[in-house]
Every structure is written in structure tokens, then in C-alpha cells.
Amino acid sequence: MKTLKIAIQKSGRLNEKSVELLKNCGLNFENYKSSLITSVSNFPLEILFLRDDDIPEYVQDGIADIGIVGENVIQETKVDVAYLQRLGFGKCKLKLAVPVNSPIQKVSDLEGKAIATSYPNILNNFLQKEDIKADIKTISGSVEIAPGLGLSDAIFDIVSTGSTLKNNGLQPFADVVSSEAILIGRKGEENTPLIQELIQRIQSVLRAKDNKYIVLNVEKVNLEKVVQLLPGVKSPSVITLADENWVAVHTVIPEKDFWNRINELKGAGAQGILVMPIEKIIM
Ligand SMILES: Nc1ncnc2c1ncn2[C@@H]1O[C@H](COP(=O)(O)OP(=O)(O)OP(=O)(O)O)[C@@H](O)[C@H]1O
Ligand SMILES: O=P(O)(O)OC[C@H]1O[C@H](OP(=O)(O)OP(=O)(O)O)[C@H](O)[C@@H]1O
Ligand SMILES: [Mg+2]
């Protein structure tokens, strides 16, 4: 059987989460900082550790079969690849920002101004759509210091918490692109059995991450009220207890409305609520 190749970031913001995701998929491999390629011992897969900028082209050209990279990098490199799975980490936005005292307040104020960025293609597309002519200054990093140094009037860069902008006396005024890490593949070749197997494993890990397993006790008289609050994977399991007036309910609830649900359940008579992480959900 052909060995699959996956390209992930060698070091940086996406490296740790990419490695963790592959390990959570049950893949065994050594992760030495010095090795740029490693084999998985229990799946026909090789992992290539690359600069993130190179990953989209490696996949487009078939050097790697699949890759994990930020959507921002895919858009910037203008490659034609298939999006196989959004991965839910590396979430950030590309924003326009200016010094706090700048007269630039909105996108149209950028006409004729200089904008520093590491994403000239995405910025250029955006400015063309907005019908604005500006001078794009392409730099490879530390974009936030450009206005302070007199290189540009504005910047266009990655923002997550916003603390880098704040620390450099900048404020955002327009969001252009939202990004997260994506599993990409070569167009037309995304349906091979090995890729599909890996996608299924990844989905079972992501599904598990989005949900919690909960166990609670409730008096039988309140059971119906409690069950109505529990959507679950299917219907919840209801298990009898030594005290015949009480039952234990086991189910899965989404992480995102976890605290609201817990309070509603308590209000409906649930007691002794246990909440546990789930490793995988296989559908
Ligand atoms: N502050 C952030 N919060 C969340 N995600 C981020 C943040 N900064 C960057 N990212 C995402 O992580 C990706 C990798 O960021 P990183 O800063 O490690 O890139 P890099 O310095 O270009 O790395 P490389 O050395 O691989 O070229 C970005 O392309 C983006 O998708
Ligand atoms: O909104 P924040 O949470 O402050 O994050 C934004 C910063 O994160 C990224 O840089 P990173 O720290 O990865 O360093 P880099 O410049 O070496 O890529 C990005 O280029 C911003 O500078
Ligand atoms: Mg890079």
C-alpha cells in the first residue's frame, strides 16, 4: 500500500496542535525537533515538518498528499487545493489597524496611504474589491512596528487576542479574513481510502473535543424534565439505582452550551453531576 505523506508546520503556532491532533488519532511517531521527516509506526503515513508558507504548494504539487496549514496562508499563496476538514485551532483574523491617534478611521480613508503587511495578495484583493489604491509595503514579520518606524500609515496583519496591537499603540478598524487551521489535500485525490480513514479519525477526535460525557442522578419524578434538557448523541441512557426512587442518567452534551445546560439540569432536579472528557466519538 502506498505511504501517505502529511505536511505540518515544523515549529510555530500550529506545530503543537497539529502533532497533538495526529497523536490523538492514534498515530505513533517520534517527534524529535531535529528530524524533518518521521514515519508513523502503526499507519502508512510519513510526516513532513515544513515552514507553513511552503505547505500549500507541496500539497498542490503532490509532494505531500495532505497538509495542515492556516487558511490565511492558503489564500495568500493562491494555490488550488481541496479543503478536507476545518480543524478548530489556530483561529485568528486578518485585520487592518492604525495608530490610536490616526486620522484613518475606515477603509476608504486608506486611499493613497502606505500599508505594511506579510499578506500582500490578500490585501491587494481586498483593496481592489473596495476600489482603493494604496501602497502595499511587504515585510515578513514584526508588522506591528511599521507605523511607529514611519514605514507605513496602517498595517494589515494577524490578530488573535489583540494584545500585540495594543502593546504597539494600534487599534483595528476592519476585519478582512477569518482563519483557522485546515486539513488540505490535492484536488481530485482526496477520496483515497487512506485519506478518508484519516479524516474519519480526525472527525471522531474533533467531535469528542466539542462534547462532554455527563452522568447525573435524578429522582424518577423529575426524570422527564431532565431528559427533555438532554439532546445527547441519541437518547440518554437511564440506569436504575439501589434507591428505587432515583435513576442515573448518562449522556453527551455539547461543550459550547455546557454551563447553561448544567444550570438548567440542576434547576430540573439533577444532582451529583459528573462531567468527563471524551476521547473519541465514532459515528
Ligand atoms: N496569534 C495567533 N493566534 C492564533 N493563530 C495564529 C496566531 N498567529 C498566527 N496564527 C496562525 O498560525 C499560523 C502559523 O503562525 P506562525 O506565527 O507560527 O507562522 P510563521 O512564523 O510564518 O511560521 P513558519 O516558521 O512556519 O513560516 C498562521 O499562519 C496563522 O494561521
Ligand atoms: O492578537 P495577538 O494574540 O497578540 O496575536 C497576534 C500576533 O501573533 C502573531 O505573531 P506571533 O506571536 O506568532 O509571532 P511571529 O511574528 O514570530 O509570527 C501575529 O503575527 C501577531 O503579531
Ligand atoms: Mg511562515
UniProtKB/TrEMBL annotation:
Which compartment or compartments is the protein found in? Answer: Cytoplasm
Residue stretches making up the Histidine biosynthesis HisG C-terminal domain: 208-280
Q: Which PANTHER family match?
A: ATP PHOSPHORIBOSYLTRANSFERASE, ATP PHOSPHORIBOSYLTRANSFERASE ATP-PRTASE
GO MF term list = ATP phosphoribosyltransferase activity
The record's listing under InterPro entries reads: ATP-PRT_HisG_long (IPR020621), ATP_PRibTrfase_cat (IPR013820), ATP_PRibTrfase_CS (IPR018198), ATP_PRibTrfase_HisG (IPR001348), HisG_C (IPR013115), N-reg_PII-like_a/b (IPR011322), N-reg_PII/ATP_PRibTrfase_C (IPR015867)
Which coenzyme or cofactor does it need?
A: Mg(2+)
Which reaction(s) are listed as its catalytic activity? 1-(5-phospho-beta-D-ribosyl)-ATP + diphosphate = 5-phospho-alpha-D-ribose 1-diphosphate + ATP
The UniProt record lists the keyword ATP-binding: yes
User: Which PROSITE patterns does this UniProt record tie to the protein?
Assistant: ATP_P_PHORIBOSYLTR (PS01316)
NCBIfam families for the chain: hisG, HisG_C-term
> What does the entry report regarding how activity is regulated?
Feedback inhibited by histidine.
The protein's role, per its UniProt record:
Catalyzes the condensation of ATP and 5-phosphoribose 1-diphosphate to form N'-(5'-phosphoribosyl)-ATP (PR-ATP). Has a crucial role in the pathway because the rate of histidine biosynthesis seems to be controlled primarily by regulation of HisG enzymatic activity.
Cite the EC number: 2.4.2.17
Q: What is the protein name stated in its UniProt record?
A: ATP phosphoribosyltransferase
What's the top EC group for this one?
Answer: transferase
**Similarity comment:** Belongs to the ATP phosphoribosyltransferase family. Long subfamily.
Q: In which pathway does it act?
A: Amino-acid biosynthesis; L-histidine biosynthesis; L-histidine from 5-phospho-alpha-D-ribose 1-diphosphate: step 1/9
